[in-house]
Amino acid sequence: MRIDIGGGVRLFVDVEGPGLVPDGALMREKPTLICMHGGPGFDHAAFKPGFSCLADIAQIVYYDHRGHGRSDERPSSEWTLDTWADDVVRLSDALGLVKPIVLGQSFGGFVAQRYIARHPGHAAKVILSSTSHHMGMERKLAAFERRGGAKARELAEAFWSTPNPATWAAYWAGCRKLYNSTEPADPNAAARTRVREEILLHFVAGEKQRLQLLPGLARAQCPVLVLAGEEDPVCPPEDAREIFAALPPEWAQFKSFPGVGHGAWRDDPKAAYATLREFILS
């Protein structure tokens, strides 16, 4: 369904599980987990069906960022981290959600970090998964070279420094397989994803180049769990450790997964989902 979040902007939203469940003579309220997908330019499909295993402990809200996937198309002037971060609040207000748990994967983690900076008191908890706080070009290139050799470094450098349809196509064809350490459990998962390449290229050529998210993390006012795959080339674990160090120590938690790439639940679902369950229930 599409939800109007104000100003005529409609986001595609899918909700899994009830928020209220019978518990003896009472109705017990489960926490709501808002899942923010990666990209930019992709959609929420990568969370399904894996995140269904958390539906017994949380109501799960999946949505496509403004302009993405099945959400309404929007002008490029609205393709900014500030807008996407503010949309978390707009969507919560439209759905009547108070103190959600907000999870940002990869690019969704950029959005979640800006959301912490702009709305530090809004969430009950935040999860920053396989994400970065800056471009970190040299670190990224070194990681791709370790995993795929000189050719992978060349493709990554061409795309991240000069994003256009040709460098993106070559990079995705040659480097996508290096993001994870295992074969996809679902070979059709990528085919289900709707991609808006123009948003991807716009962001990587613009805001991504000057990304500096660490300063805003000091404003966090709720528990924040940082997840990192030790073999992630596109959001290297060193970035995650710097994110963790920038958070107020009383709120920060960190978990790394050895032998794991981008999105820990893809390579080690048992450990990753157990970590998420523990954090949601804590």
Automatic annotation (TrEMBL):
Gene Ontology biological-process entries: proteolysis
Keyword Protease: yes
InterPro entries, alphabetized: AB_hydrolase_1, AB_hydrolase_fold, AB_hydrolase_sf, Peptidase_S33
GO cellular component: membrane
Highest taxon, organism lineage: Bacteria
EC number of the protein: 3.4.11.5
Signal peptide range: none
Originating organism: Roseateles oligotrophus
GO molecular function: aminopeptidase activity
Name by which UniProt lists this protein: Proline iminopeptidase
